[in-house]
Amino acid sequence: MAEQIPFGIADNLLMKLGSAVFHQIGLVYGVGGELRKLEDTLSTVRAVLLDAEEKQERSHAVAVWVRRLKDVVYDADDLFDDFATEDLRRKTDVQGRFGIGQVSDFLSSSNHLGFRFKMGHRIKAIREKLDHIANDISKFNLIPRVVRSDVSVRKGVRETCSIVDKSHKIVGRDENKREIIGLLMQSGGSQENLSMVVVVGMGGLGKTTLAQLVYNDQGVVSYFSLRMWVCVSDDFDAGALVQNILRSATNEDVGNLNLPLEQLQKRLQQELDGKRYLLVLDDVWNEDLKKWGQFITLLPVGADGSKILATTRSTKVASIMGVDSPYIVEGLKDDESWELFESLAFRKGEEKMNPKLVAIGKEIVKMCKGVPLVIQTIGRILYFKTQESQWLNIKNNKSLMLLGDENDILLALRISYDNLPTHLKQCFAYCALFPKDYKIEKKLLVQLWMAQGYLQVSSDENMNLEDVGNQYFDDLLSRYLFHKVENEDGNDVLSCKMHDLIHDLAQFIVKSEFIIVTNDVKIIPERTHHVSLFNKLNEMPEVLMGKSIRTFFMDSYHCNNYIRNSFISSFKCSRVMKVNFPLYKVPTSLIKLGHLRYLDLSHGSFEHLPGGITRLKHLQTLKLLFCKNFKKWPRNMKKLINLRHLDIDGNNELTYMPSGLGELTKLQTLPIFLLGNDSWESRHKRKRMGRLGELKFLNNLRGQLVIEGLSNARAGYANEAHLETKQYLECLVLSYRLLKESTQESEEMVSVMESLQPHSNLKELFMHDYGGARFPNWMMNDRLDLRLPNLVMVHICFCSSCQVLPPFGQLPFLKCLRLFYLYGVKYMKDNPSSPKPFFPSLKTLVIDDLPNLEGWGRRDVAANQQSPSYPCLEHLQLGNINTELCLHLISVSSSLKSLKIRDCSGLLTLPNWIGCLTSLALLSVKDCPNLTSLPEEMRTLRNLCTLEISGCPFLSERYQKEIGEDWPNISYIPKIMIC
Q1: Contact in structure between 814 and 793 (CB atoms under 8 Å)
Q2: What is the largest CA-CA distance in the chain?
Q3: Residue 765: which of 722, 811, 804 has the closest Cα?
């Protein structure tokens, strides 16, 4: 049986052995000679790994050789970690006690002789094992091969959820889509309100994609008042399914309520009763008639026309559902297959330049038997290959030649793994840690890869480990081994999923090395190194105790005390530990896990961490999210010198950051910085509190930084934060929300804010509860477009003393501006004579509770000035503002898609020219008690899909459904809510 090759770890070991740090360790501990011998032998073995990977498929003896090598590589990785840990511990401890000049004297004393003796024996034992492995190279005729180490790729294209991945080309499914939509919208022909359409086809044919196309079709959206999407996969549990249906119906997280099934059913009935709904059950495997019967009885029938759309690979599953004539999906036609393949395997126009590759490609396409997933993965492999011989190698691959039924698809997909660069293979296989249909966050996955030592630093000095990991992720995405789920506005992918068959491929590769523990798992193989848990367990398998576990990933709130108190300390080799449950006390034995790189204790109920946690010198990621009782940091946090990500949020009892944090200069993630009020704390606690100056040297911070409790800052110290040097920060939140009562005066608030000017690269700026009489000069600057040219979002609320807004209209890339509860603001600073466009990129504008706002820019205050234009404005929300200004803002927004008006008592009618807003899709009017009518011109708004009216008594009467005198004027709108 073939084994996964530990390319990444082997490369990491060689990099360490060649580093200056390990050269120094060799000198200090007197093991330099042994380390050099180890490096030479490991280099020899590394050179033949590609050949061994191929030959182990045909030779059991070579597979056993690879298995022996993996054991030694893991032992060596632990050994090197122990060396580095001891070296870091002694350096930090000695510097603290003696000063830097006396470190070497201390290290050469008798204090470390015992450690040196012990480690010398371990090195020798590992080297001897590795020598035996190297001696077998000639026995198996393993040949050195050159390993391509670059991580660059050709630029090109970059599961399940209801969203269609628009970056993936979809061909040949238009007719299938029309036919399925027709089935969903036709009468069931019986008295029952709920009927089913079941789509059946072998894996990889695109059933999920087809269901997504149907689900998001505009006609389907209009026909069904409620749509829900649930991915079912292997585990068909009625209670879990009802929870997931509720989550989809309400957009609320109901997964951890632990409600009895009867209560869940009542909630579901409340949500679905009287509604014509569409429920998609994607990827159903259940062949148990009793389970299906238990589930279907929980579903309310809904209004007439409600439907279930299910996808499955099995006609038996369809029969269990009571559908004897399912909709069968076939493979793509030859021309459709070629169209898909051509778009993936060639650059635009490249096929015309390579007629030989086209001929080979057409033969390959025929061998793919019309299966889109196979065509996609093979096409993306060939996109990275330009030589005729490389294409012929794929064409002549036996797995592709034998492709027939579903069982053969997995072997065909194996080609995509075999053709990955070595640095991507372990990264891809590691995803077997997650269950099917799991949404994998990109940032999490990169941190896990980093913790396991899979990331290889590029020669590009500007790339750090996270950059490399992001590129690895994008490479796997571009090869169709990942499918993106969630994007940022800037098109950066935030999360992904894996197709079921791709997930099967990852599990096939890792075999027993990765185990997802469920109640059905009774035996843990000896060679298991990575363990994950996602569902409730009756008990943890005792055989896990003492295993060489390198990953323990527990993403479940359901566990018993035995799990909490016993298992953590036994995983001495762990690089990754995630234990997300209400842990009331963090075991002190955790500090013995010296290899840890990633520690996630989120959702714990503990008040503090054990002080010895600062001994975890290799720790790169520490997550403490939503630990509701956590309030005390351990001393000497500065000793966590390799910490790169400190993820804290939702910790309501925490009021300060630890002193010494500023010495952790590798920090990239610090989403929140809490400023405590030292005047209310004991002298002992004041010493542990970090001031704004802790941020001074944290110049690698990325993403978001929230500075909370600025009312506790002092003007003389605020400038020590040096925010202007934080060039990688994208989002800055400046909050004066009081953690405890403050005596800060308005002028001091202004002085503090003046000191917090961010870097010009900033993209998002939030300001909350600022009590200064004016905004800081760096915001009020006449050339704000030069000071903060990259801003795309501004959000300001509860800044009640300021009277003049900064000149936001200058910002060239500002897309979203939200202003709330600015009771003192009268106008926005602006230059009426400026030739530059006003809000040239703005898409969303919210002005809510600015009752004293007189004009929108000085040009509006001046008499008869031409109104500014908003060429990109799509979403406008206005509340409790001057009526005249309200109408003015609507009039200049011809591109609007949504308009929300609230609490405008002076508004008597909407103007006739609202009929010019031809793109308007949503109109919401609330709490406008004097609004008497809507203009007849609204009939021309044929794109209007939703109309919401509440708190408007005249409108509620005139537009009452069916009987109101003006109901005909709005009856064409698909969704109308009047209350």
Answers
A1: yes
A2: 97
A3: 811
Q: Residues 821, 823, 824, 828: is their CA dihedral positive or negative? A: positive
> The tokens of 564 are what?
């909490």
Say if residues 163 and 439 touch (Cβ distance below 8 Å). no
pLDDT in tens, 787-799: 999 999 999 999 9
Q: How many CB atoms lie within 10 A of CB 849?
A: 18
pTM (whole model) above 0.85: no
Question: Which residues in 867-905 are b (16+ Cβ under 10 Å) and which e?
Answer: ebebeebbbbbbbbbbeebbbebbebbeebbbbbbbbbe
Neighbouring CB atoms inside 10 A of 663's CB total 15
Pure H helices in 902-977? 953-958, 967-970
Rounded to 10 degrees, the C-alpha dihedral 310/313/315/320 comes to: -50
pLDDT at 235 over 80: no
Q: What 3-state class would DSSP assign to 851?
A: coil
Distance CA 475, CA 453 (A): 18
Residues 6+ apart with CB under 8 A from 542: none
Structural contact between residues 160 and 497, judged by C-beta atoms closer than 8 angstroms: yes
C-alpha to C-alpha distance for 957 and 881, rounded to whole angstroms? 25
Starting at the edge strand that comes first in sequence, how are the strands of the sheet with 764-768 ordered? 672-674, 703-708, 729-735, 764-768, 793-797, 816-820, 844-848, 875-879, 898-902, 922-926, 946-950, 975-978
Taking only the tens place, the pLDDT of each residue in 301-319 is: 888 888 999 999 888 889 9
- Which stretches of 518-578 are DSSP H helices? 561-566
Residues 6+ apart with CB under 8 A from 280: 162, 211, 215, 227, 228, 229, 230, 308, 309, 310, 311
CB of 869 closer than 8 Å to CB of 837: yes
Virtual CA dihedral for 11, 12, 14, 20, nearest 10 degrees?
150
* Residue 936 one-letter amino acid: E
Residue 94 CA to its chain's centroid (Å): 41
Strands 672-674 and 703-708: parallel
Write the DSSP string, 58-115.
T-HHHHHHHHHHHHHHHHHHHHHHHHHHHHHHHHHHHHHHT-GGGHHHHHTSGGGHHH
What is the spatial order of strands in the sheet that 483-487 belongs to? 440-441, 493-497, 483-487
> What distance lies between CA 756 and its chain's CA centroid?
29
Euclidean distance between CA atoms 84 and 79, whole angstroms = 9
What is the chain's length? Answer: 979
Q: Which pLDDT score is estimated for 811?
A: 94
Residue 233, token pair as written in the block: 């996969």
DSSP 789-808: TT--EEEEES-TT--EE--G
